[in-house]
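Example record for the data management plan.
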Amino acid sequence: MYRIEVMYPNKPGSTFNLKHWSEVHLPMGLRLLKKHCGVSPVRVEAYPNPYAPPGMTAPYHLANSLYFNTREDADAFINLFGIEEAARELRADWPNYTQSDPDVMISEVIDCDPTTGRAR
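Corresponding structural encoding:
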């Protein structure tokens, strides 16, 4: 399994509109991914309003994980931003919910035993 992590930086002066992101932007992105790439994630998670240990600032307003069964499907998500129509629509919406461009990380997911830590 593969995970795409989209993280919205908590920079000085930046804000994040969770309602717009969850009701407009995320559904738009999923629709465009299906339309242009024929792919849908098998699972989607959002981690809003993270907090940091005392004395520190949370580095992100929100992190969003999208899980895909294959690397090819995960790569389709990244390729979506190379499709002019989709990229234009997604980027045009960013100012409606944040001032920061997202950070993106792609990784393989390895399930580990919670007792031993060994990969299963």
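Summary line stored alongside the record: The chain has a mean pLDDT of 95.
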